[in-house]
Specification:
It holds the Pfam family ADH_zinc_N. GO terms for molecular function: oxidoreductase activity, acting on the CH-CH group of donors, NAD or NADP as acceptor. The protein has helices at 53-57, 129-133, 136-146, 165-174, 187-197, 210-217, 231-239, 253-256, 272-277, 293-306, 323-331, and strands at 8-13, 26-31, 40-50, 83-90, 101-104, 111-115, 120-121, 154-157, 179-184, 201-204, 222-227, 241-249, 281-284, 314-318, 338-342. By secondary structure, the chain is an alpha/beta fold. Helix 11 links the parallel strand 14 (314-318) and strand 15. The chain binds NADP nicotinamide-adenine-dinucleotide phosphate. NADP nicotinamide-adenine-dinucleotide phosphate is lined by residues 51-53, 135, 138, 159, 161-165, 184-185, 189, 228-229, 250-254, 256-257, 285-287, 330, 333, 335.
Amino acid sequence: MSASPNNNREVKLVRHVKGAIHPEDFAIADTIVPPPGPYNVVVRNRWFRVSISTRLMAQEDAKAAEGIPFPPLNPGDTLADGAIGEVVQAGSACSLAVGSLVMHPFGWREYASVPEHDCRLIDSDDPDPAAYLGHGWTAYAALTRGIQVKNGDTVFVSSGAGAIGSMAGQIARLLGAARVVGSTSTREKAGWMQDELGYDAVVTRDGGPIAEQLAKAAPEGIDVIVDMVGGDQLAAAIGLAKDGARCVLLGALTAELNPDKASLQAPVTLDSCQIIFKGMTLQGFSADHAPDAFGLWIRDLKTWKRQGRIHLPAATSKGIESATSALRQACAGQLKGVVLVEL
Ligand SMILES: NC(=O)c1ccc[n+]([C@@H]2O[C@H](COP(=O)([O-])OP(=O)(O)OC[C@H]3O[C@@H](n4cnc5c(N)ncnc54)[C@H](OP(=O)(O)O)[C@@H]3O)[C@@H](O)[C@H]2O)c1
């Protein structure tokens, strides 16, 4: 970690990503962060999040990805993602004090110049980065605002070991689910999900037809589907849905992590008659639709942590030099939980 904003290091895109992530797609640049203007603060970042959506945004045709809530990246741009850090300089019109711990959207750099209105003050007594930068709140918002989990529900979480999924399975249980089934790539990850996250059963992409595995894992059918994957996993879950089942659609990893090319198009054939006859709800949901859920998530998380009923899985690597490797590993499915870099 460099010692001052005059010796900042940040990760820039060198060339558009084609297919898999290559280390040569990115470079660490030395920069100077100038003193803040009246409404800006300079933050010494301590942690930032690494998200697989960066791969999509770093492709040449990213601007064609309609509706995605991040700006496309061009060569020369500094990457960005959620970060937590300490205010080291504050502009003359700022109310944030030097020393405040804040969350903001300018990770992938050691020091950031941030408009004060983009900073969220966080609790410095418990600055657990996975609580704030992780996707527990996305899962919490989806399961409390997108759809509601009821006592006794059987819940299926696709990509149940991922940043959102590792939290969705646990939160579904805490909200009353009786049986929680997840999906992942390998038996090794499945074992970890059962031991660490409390899944009752896990289906795997290397374990044969998903519909057959899911029928065994949820023999009485599924009440709630939390879908991050799309494709055959979504179709299989809808096939096993009970009357009145609720499905919240959060992502499309089959498209986003397609090894050849990241995209947002994940076409899937769904049996619409089943959706109609079963009276199912299919709800698309973005956590951005419920920003006020963030405070409620932090409140409930504190209680659940105190009671020892929730884990915040994170794959944390150290130093800005580790960040592009963490992105490559995340996209290759080699990590569990939220992916963080500690500076
Ligand atoms: N709606 C919202 O508010 C919201 C917010 C943030 C993100 N999202 C979206 O939600 C989805 C999940 O996000 P996340 O941050 O939780 O992702 P993530 O866990 O970081 O995604 C990486 C995981 O995806 C799985 N994966 C890799 N290749 C796959 C493939 N071909 N098919 C299916 N899964 C594959 C791997 O897990 P396994 O090895 O366990 O399979 C990998 O570890 C993404 O599409 C993301 O863009 C939505």
